[in-house]
Design goal:
With 671 residues, this protein is an alpha/beta fold. It contains 27 helices and 26 strands. The protein folds into three domains: 230 residues, FAD/NAD(P)-binding domain (3-Layer(bba) Sandwich), CATH 3.50.50; 214 residues, no CATH class; 114 residues, no CATH class. A hairpin with a 2-residue loop joins strand 11 and strand 12. The structure holds flavin-adenine dinucleotide (FAD). The site of flavin-adenine dinucleotide has 33 residues, from strand 2, helix 2, helix 6, helix 7 and helix 16.
Length: 671
């Protein structure tokens, strides 16, 4: 034991995740050591070595970089290139490289209040251990080594995710046939575009409205029903809602291909009572062909060279370029390289395994001091860690970077986790308070955010803005109504996305210029006016419906029973399930000026309903339907569904050929 080196905190694994923690530990002068592999095994360094950093991230700039880097120059949001992301990692490696002790950690013995960390070369004693060793996943090997120059082959993926989608985008130009075996998946457009104005997916999630529960689901999901479909197994036997939704919006991918919706065996009590947006869901984020064409079509060669690749999976499925097979109905014979699905037998050449993300934890032994029982091996379960950071049965051990975002980037998660861990290390009374209440905190969080009774391999995936808010609350740096001094403050509190830098505008973890940065982003997003207009429009439509029923009653057209029946019909058939979907069908691209025109119209409709006879709602409804039909036919640019608008994609078919030819020329040197 005498050769054991002692320190306060040990960080195992140097990578991008631990950077904000090192910054805070240095700021408050804590003692720490970093132990990391002699040859870093990060997936990014492997991709760099393989010359494969030619793609763009699935997370936006604002969610992929840390607050203290973002404030250096206020830039417009976009999807950064993998090379730039890796360059940021390298710059931090350069900064800290002299502090890193290059050694592999083999085992941690966790005692009450301290740990012994064993490495290849020696042992260390410390109070706190922070493990930031990242995940491993089978598909990482394929990402680094799969031969993308193959042609006319059949390639099977047993997964649909961002990594497989990246691989598919590099394989299609070789005329390869792609087959994906999946339990269903979610897919979202990465960016909304209108005449040079852009908005990334993750900046339009309005996380602090999530406590509104169903209303929030209604707005974000297009309809509470669509949300229910995405997250649970409550489709129902008759599926009338799905049919009705399809009638109103037949060109949304999910209504066209309902068998591809992912459904879970949800515990319905948890689903109804829990967070509006539960944990455990995975979605691919892709460039829709219309946005891609608008943004990159004029200089395609350069875009492809940089790494902006067209990866519109719903379109590939629609065009028959990617075949999807339901996992539960597919038999795979790996020996004979065949796959059977619905009576069809497909011979394949390559099989790419996705595999779950598995934390690369060193062995951890719970030493059971004084209990008289032998040491026990720690078994990782996401749901048994507070905020995915503090395991219930370990003492002063923190997990960093093992919670991942559904949309947005890892940086938001890790920055907030780092602040939490720092406070646990640097503030004794805070640490005592959290530790004393740990089991109840873990239980409450799990009940709120997990809707399945059983653990899932994707339990570590969270909705970034509700997660950051939970961590901010735990640290005590969340923004509340009491902090608001002006309407602008209220708007920022409720509507500004919960990026980590939102919590660093003021207070104990303030970063200089974050407040100005938040205001800059607000300005470039028109202060979320588009959202306010859309939400108010929906509210006014509901008001018109209520006024109509009231007028029927006061005009003597229906009695109380009639009012009851109409109100129930309206609530269950329209307001609860379809109105929002219907509105979306007619909805102009929300960042286009057409939103204002539409809002003005709705105000006129409201005035007409107040002053006119009840029958006035008929021309109003008629006008709404006419406007929808005309816009969908002649102005697809302003009447596009937010996500997966198949009708809108169809008109860009011709671009696919041009894209594939350019890709072959740029990447493989032939057309
Ligand atoms: C293709 C791809 C695309 C991605 N796209 C995005 C994206 O768009 N946005 C986004 O935010 N994220 C994305 N990610 C995920 C994420 O950014 C990275 O995985 C992230 O860099 C992980 O950082 P980290 O610090 O947690 O881990 P790493 O950078 O992997 O660092 C962990 C370090 O720990 C060391 N280590 C491991 N075990 C031990 C041990 N026992 N002893 C000592 N050292 C050890 C490793 O050698 C490594 O140096 C993507 C990942 C992939 C694969």
């Amino acid at each position: 034991m005498s050769s054991i080196q002692e320190t306060e905190t040990i960080i195992i694994g140097f990578g991008f995740s631990c950077v904000p923690l090192l910054r805070e530990l240095d700021r408050t002068g804590e003692k720490y050591l970093i132990l990391s592999d002699p040859a870093p095994s990060s997936v990014w360094s492997a991709l760099k070595r393989a010359g494969r950093l030619n793609f763009d991230l699935v997370s936006s700039y604002y969610t992929s970089f840390y607050s203290f880097d973002l404030v250096k120059d206020f830039r417009k949001d976009m999807y950064p290139l993998a090379g730039d992301f890796y360059a940021m990692h390298l710059s931090y490696y350069e900064k800290y490289k002299d502090q890193i002790i290059r050694t592999h950690v083999t085992r941690i013995e966790n005692h009450k209040g301290f740990s012994i960390v064993h490495t290849d070369e020696g042992s260390y004693k410390c109070t706190n251990v922070v493990i930031s060793t990242a995940f491993t996943r089978k598909i990482h090997d394929s990402l680094c080594s799969f031969d993308y120059s193959v042609k006319d082959k059949t390639i099977v993926f047993d997964t649909v995710g961002d990594s497989s989608n990246l691989m598919i985008s590099k394989l299609l130009s070789g005329n390869n046939k792609i087959v994906c075996v999946t339990n269903g998946f979610l897919a979202f457009d990465k960016l909304f575009y209108y005449k040079g104005k852009t908005a990334t997916l993750d900046q339009f999630e309005f996380h602090n409205l999530a406590p509104l529960g169903k209303f929030y689901r209604a707005f974000i999901g297009g309809s509470p029903y669509l949300f229910d479909q995405f997250f649970t197994n409550i489709g129902g036997k008759l599926k009338w809602k799905l049919k009705a939704a399809r009638l109103v919006t037949p060109e949304i991918f999910w209504f066209k291909y309902p068998e591809l919706i992912h459904r879970d065996e949800a515990d319905m009590t948890r689903y109804h009572k829990g967070a509006a947006f539960p944990n455990g869901f995975i979605a691919i984020k892709y460039w829709p062909i219309d946005t891609y064409t608008e943004m990159f079509g004029k200089d395609l060669e350069n875009a492809i060279r940089q790494g902006y690749l067209l990866n519109d999976l719903p379109l590939w499925i629609e065009e028959g370029m990617v075949k999807i097979c339901k996992k539960s109905e597919t038999q795979i014979d790996r020996e004979n390289k065949t796959l059977s699905y619905k009576g069809e037998v497909i011979s394949y050449d390559y099989f790419v395994q996705g595999g779950p993300e598995v934390p690369r934890l060193p062995q951890i032994l719970i030493m059971n001091d004084g209990a008289g029982s032998p040491p026990e091996e720690y078994k990782y379960r996401v749901r048994k860690n507070y905020l995915g950071v503090m395991p219930e049965n370990l003492s002063n051990v923190f997990l960093l970077g093992l919670i991942r975002p559904f949309t947005g980037g890892l940086a938001n998660m890790t920055e907030m986790q780092c602040l939490f861990i720092h406070k646990m290390i640097a503030n004794k009374s805070f640490k005592e308070g959290v530790t004393a209440t740990l089991p109840s905190r873990i239980r409450e969080y799990a009940e709120k955010y997990y809707i399945t009774a059983k653990d899932k391999p994707t339990d570590h995936l969270v909705y970034y803005g509700t997660y950051t808010e939970e961590v901010a609350k735990a640290i005590g740096i969340n923004i509340t109504a009491k902090d608001c001094r002006s309407l602008g403050d209220v708007r920022r509190w409720l509507l500004f996305p919960n990026n980590a830098f939102k919590y660093r505008q003021f207070g104990e973890y303030a970063v200089e210029k974050c407040s100005e940065f938040v205001r800059y982003i607000e300005k470039t997003h028109d202060n979320w006016t588009a959202f306010v207009l859309s939400a108010t429009t929906i509210g006014i439509y509901n008001l018109i419906a209520i006024l109509f029923i009231a007028k029927l009653f006061t005009g003597g057209y229906v009695g109380l029973v009639g009012v009851g029946v109409l109100a129930l019909l309206y609530y269950f058939l329209v307001a609860r399930n379809l109105i929002i979907l219907g509105l979306l069908a007619a909805s102009p691209v929300f960042i286009s000026p057409f939103n204002y025109f539409r809002f003005a119209l709705v105000i006129i409709f409201l005035i007409a309903t107040i002053w006119g006879p009840p029958a006035i709602v008929l021309p109003i409804l008629g006008f709404e339907i006419l406007m929808t039909v005309i816009a969908r036919r002649y102005r697809k640019d302003i009447s596009r569904h937010f996500f997966n608008d198949m009708a809108n994609k169809r008109q860009y078919r011709g671009f696919i050929k041009e894209y594939m030819e350019t890709y072959r020329k740029v990447v493989h040197g032939n057309a």
